[in-house]
């Protein structure tokens, strides 16, 4: 199935890409300095020279004449000298401003990196915590029910064995799931250091592997833990989740890819109950479309809230999950597209190169 044409499609990019603009500061300073030296520096020097001659009685005071005289063609050596001096001074000033701007951007990036790391940790542990909390509540309810049944046995009104066995079996299943969640949490703690390295450095490199097992695992973990209480139907390439048999092998970093997928798909599950995931490839890129049947959104407003500083956003949500995904995609040369109409669902498209860039230093 293909999504209907939507009215808006905007590339969501990390604000840190504006760092490239600082390279123009020295050139702007050079041109501005040349103009200042030509139009201000040399005429001002001639005016000062005329005032000096007037004070010592060597020449009449003629300020306008001194300015006009400064632009005569026979003054070209002085004009050239002041223009070059002005350009050098402007270049130096531009380099200083560039360094201040880059330092400011580095500080902003450090703050953003910290925010993204905290958000990513929250993403993983929130899912596990929600799952553990949900199954703990079920165990408590089953224990209360068992207590009532045991009390009835004490009063010689014992329930039938099948009823009691059914409650015991449900309790055992919940305990098993809790144990699995605890094992996932322990395993995740070990993986988190690897992921943080992938987020901030180039110490990890993409490896060729099948994409679909990771996609299915990411979706299944969301369904098992975070959205277990909600009826959510997920299809991959038009097939139910458990019937997907497709394969697609290309190099990617698994920990960062898992975070990207769970952020985007989890955001769709939060607002919808039918999710369609379509995976395709072309132009040496892999595209993952996540379409939902939710209420839709205003893309312009979403972009505004993502790009604004946290303390200036209009909504309560900081969209840190999307910001994490955008940040990680930017590292490997990928991008995130969003398209939607209010009331008609939304489509988020993840694009990554089949030969991704090496993970690089964030600063």
Structure, explained:
It is built from 8 helices and 9 strands. The protein is elongated, with a radius of gyration of 32 Å. The chain has a domain at 17-112. The protein has helices at 25-55, 63-69, 76-154, 161-200, 211-226, 254-271, 299-307, 320-331, and strands at 9-12, 207-210, 233-236, 239-240, 249-252, 274-282, 285-292, 335-340, 346-353. The protein is 58% helix and 13% strand. The chain starts with 8 loop residues before the first strand and ends in a 10-residue tail after the last strand. The longest helix is centred in the first third of the chain and has 79 residues, at 76-154. 26% of the residues are buried. Residues 1-10, 13-19 and 359-363 have low confidence and may be disordered. α1 runs antiparallel to α3 (76-154) and α3 crosses α8. A hairpin with a 2-residue loop joins β6 (274-282) and β7 (285-292). Strands 1-8-9-7-6-3-4 form a 7-stranded mixed sheet, covered by helices on one side. Strands 2-5 form a two-stranded antiparallel sheet. With 363 residues, the chain is of the alpha+beta class.
